[in-house]
Amino acid sequence: MKLSLIRTYSYYTFPNFHKPKTQSPSLCARLTRPVCSTSLKPKTPLFLRPPEYSATLSDLKRWQDWAKTLSSSIGSSFLDSDNGPDPSLLCRELNWLIEDSLEDHSVIPQLGIQDNSKNVRLKVDIAELYSLWKQRIEGRKPFQYIVGCEHWRDLVLSVEEGVFIPRPETELLVDLASDAVSNNEELRQGLWVDLGTGSGAIAIGIGRILGTRGRVIATDLNPLAASVAAFNVQRYSLQDVIEIRQGSWFEPLKDIEEKLSGVISNPPYIPSEDIPGLQAEVGRHEPRLALDGGFDGMDDLLYLSNCTALLLKPGGFFAFETNGEKQCKFLVDYLENDNAGSFCNMKIVSDFAGIPRFVTGFHQ
Amino acid sequence: MSSFWLKRSRSISSVLLQNLRTKTGTLDSSQFLNSIQSSQNHTVLPSGLSSFLLKALKNPSGSQYQQFLHRNSKGGFRFFSTQAVTEPSTADGLTVEGIVASQWTILDESESDWKSHAAAIAQSILVIKKRLQWNKLMVRLNFLSAELNKPNLWDDPVHAGRISREHGSLMGKMKEVKAFEQELLEHIDMIKLAREENDTELESESLKALLTMRRISNEKELEALLSGEQDPCPCYIEVQAGAGGTESMDWAAMVMEMYKSWAQQRGYKVTVVDEMPGEMAGIKRATIKVEGEYAFGYAKSEVGVHRLVRISPFDSGKRRHTSFAAVAVIPIMGDGSTRVQINESDLRIERYRAGGPGGQHANTTDSAVRIVHIPTGVTVTCQNERSQHQNKASAMAVLQSRLDQLEMARQAQMNAQHTQSLTDISWGNQIRTYVLHPYRMVKDLRTNYEVSDPDSVLEGDLDGFILSYLSASLDKDENEG
User: Fold this and answer.
1) Residue B390 sits at the chain A interface (C-beta within 8 Å)
2) Chain B residue with minimal CA distance to A285?
């Protein structure tokens, strides 16, 4: 495999990365988009921060009561306006925020006791907790940006404002890939790509199901996403399996001569006209780059399909996430007609809500 | 009949153990015991011979029996040889039952009277045997021994593994009691000997040993309450609100809190698996996982409907209300035990409470999952984990345990060991009443055990109820058996 280590977008090798003098000119020329600065250093998720703060249990309890009241005050208004969270969901999030902020979880049951002057160690200042919860309720900031992480499959992935938060539905993409490699050793040991990786979720999920010689290259146009993905890869010690490259779709893969065993992607697929009406958490906070799929939402899906037909090896597997039944059917139809003869065994797979969500298939 | 059976089966088992995996001539042991087992299952007997045998067994003094013994005395059928059945006894023929029958006065532990100690220990041994359901244990052990003797046993390794594990654990349990019994009798022999020989040192040593045994026997009595195969397992406790809206949902939440505190006080680890809050207050239902030694053994006593009588805090008219909450307890069996195989194709997995187009449109931390096992209709939801994958895994674990429990109940019914219906096992009848008004009392309807301080009970002080139920239920079983 012709993968240059220097091109690896590793979090820890980052500082060296933009010292072109230390690298050969040819390598620099091959860099797809050398956009990086120290400001892109990923933020540490709350649960990984050191417990540098402390507060009494009753102070924490006071904050919790305040936050509960604030959460209840919204009633069903978020739900009614844009299918946003209701108070019971917000209260569950509040408990998770407490879990992530506390060093010692065993004190949580004691929060019910009034006037407890016992000190607990916190990973965030209590004043900051007030501000965070205000941002959650009043600013509709996604909970995952508040705590800096998203629990996805059996992973805890770092995310931050500017990086798309992986969705529960997308967990199934990894299961689909897992099914494809379950009795196919050739695919299990091959080269896979995750296009538009965001936080690196799919790539890490797949990296953990591949064989010892299996490799994943994950690309993202957004440099912040690439650096967050690299951080997550590092956290799961998968840097020997997964390489993060910054660039648009297949563009950073131009040096790869071998054909691909698998192509997986959750590209932006929301039709442009739907963007203004999105749930506040999504529309106001998540990167449009990861959401907007053009006029009918199919721009990127169609582009990826065409490239996949060229780069996938015979017997190679692909799986794409879509906006629902309409896009699934359109895509299958397109692949059968415009890429006639390229793919076989195409399937539309529904998510757990029963919405046709994924298109999968194999290269002829 | 019962004492005959007891002695017989004991001798059978001991012979069987010596002859493990050997096959004898015309009628081997497994055939014999099989026929007994099959008669319990009300299936047609495989041969005329075995029904004859059963008749002989049921009528031990009959001439057929004697004849049979005689005829077979030369064959491989050694169970019915004239070999004496020896109940452990002292040199002068005193047995544990004999000690209890002689009704020696049991004095305080501090009194150095060997007869008092011996009587106390002997009584404990009988209690332990009763609690272990000794007679049923014997029958079961014989059956298992017979199974182990079958030449084709290992054709089904899973079944074989289960049989041999259960056999091993029963043997261990029974050996322990036997050894304890033997120890008591040996000490009595020693004391008698010491007295004959005027050896005061030996006498006081043996007396001390008896005292130690007496103390241990109390612990053993308690342990014997939890001798079921699943008793050591962790478990799920599920609480479901009865009809009656907010009132009952509030009560369900109180019951759940009671179990959480009880489990925490016992040092168990408690994890909330699923919690469906009520609209106004309380919970519609919730499931917790309780991990720690004998969690299921204790918690299983709580299965049933719990009734609350109080002045409703939700009723502006301050009227008295009665609410119900149902409690189910499901053991989580270890990897060692056989578990029901779940086919992926039998499952319907759904995102719970999903709405709208989903995918990139929605940002939600709610990834609740519902799994329906289509063949049985068992439905499990889980919403307390932070990812859909984990919610699914958690729900699958609950589903697995529920199906295991259903299967166990089905088998138990087949073996006619339990007469409880499946619904009894899963939700059960009303077992306890908690009255906060007009008087204050908690009363268990099964044992009539009651306390006058509902607050302490609701704060998790349940052990009195649990222990009294466990001992009462075992006494009842033994009488029925």
Assistant:
1) yes
2) B363
d(CA B142, CA B284): 47
| Tens digits of residue pLDDT in A98-130 | 999 999 888 887 787 767 788 999 999 999 999
Question: Average pLDDT over chain B, rounded to whole?
Answer: 79
Catalytic residue among A17, A78, A164, A358: A164
Interface touch B360/A351, C-beta < 8 Å = no
Taking the C-alpha atoms of residue B385 and residue B25, their distance in angstroms, rounded to an integer, is 61
- The catalytic residue among A85, A223, A267, A268 is A267
CB contact under 8 A, B388 and A291: no
Residues of chain A contacting B365 with CB distance shorter than 8 Å = 85, 89, 92-93, 96, 143-144
Mean pLDDT across the stretch B175-193? Answer: 92
Question: Among A12-21, A100-109, A273-282, whose mean pLDDT is lowest?
Answer: A12-21
Q: Is A330 a catalytic residue?
A: no
Q: B171 — phi, psi (to 5°)?
A: -60, -45
Residue with tokens 């999504």: A282
Q: Do A170 and A66 touch, CB atoms closer than 8 A? A: no
Pairing mode, strands A260-265 and A191-195 = parallel
Place of tokens 């612990």: B219
Pairing of strands B430-435, B441-444: antiparallel
C-beta atoms of B350 and A88 within 8 A: no
Mutate to test the interface with A, among B269, B348, B352, B365 (most CBs of A within 10 A): B365
Q: What is the number of H-type helices and E-type strands within chain A?
A: 14, 11
Amino acid present at A16: N
CB contact under 8 Å between A281 and B363, yes or no, is yes
- pLDDT tens per residue, range A135-177: 999 999 999 999 999 999 999 999 999 999 999 999 999 999 9
Catalytic residue from among A14, A87, A232, A266: A266
Nearest CB to A353: which of B354, B387, B389? B354
Pairing of strands B235-241, B320-331: antiparallel
**Is A260 strand, coil or helix?**
strand
Architecture of domain B229-352+364-481: 2-Layer Sandwich (3.30)
CA separation for the pair A231, A218 (Å, rounded): 13
pLDDT tens-digit series, residues B12-44: 333 333 333 333 333 344 443 343 333 333 333
What is the edge-to-edge ordering of all strands in the sheet holding B235-241?
A: B269-277, B283-291, B235-241, B320-331, B304-311, B430-435, B441-444, B450-451
Catalytic residue flag (residue A168): no
Of all residues in chain B, the one with the smallest CA distance to A172 is B389
Name the architecture of domain B2-224: Up-down Bundle (1.20)
Instruction: Report the C-alpha gap between B88 and B79 in whole angstroms.
Output: 19
Sequence letter at residue B89: S
Q: Where are the domains of chain B?
A: 2-224, 229-352+364-481
Give the chain A residue whose CA is nearest to the CA of B350.
A352
CA–CA separation, A161 vs A142, rounded Å? 9
Q: For the whole model, what pTM was predicted?
A: 0.74
Asked if B277's CB is within 8 angstroms of A354's CB, the reply is: no
pLDDT tens sequence across B106-159: 888 888 888 899 999 999 999 898 888 888 888 989 999 998 888 888 888 888
Clarify whether A143 is annotated catalytic.
Answer: no
Specify the 3-state DSSP secondary structure of A261: strand
Show the domains of chain A with their CATH numbers.
Answer: 5-13+153-363 (3.40.50.150), 46-145 (no CATH)
Only one residue has tokens 């994943």, namely: A216
What is the end-to-end Cα distance of chain A in Å, rounded? 23
H/E element holding A310? helix A299-311
Q: Which residue has the higher pLDDT, B84 or A69?
A: A69
- Shortest Cα distance, chain A CAs vs residue B181, angstroms: 45
Q: Which of A155, A279, A322 sits opposite B363 (nearest CB)?
A: A279
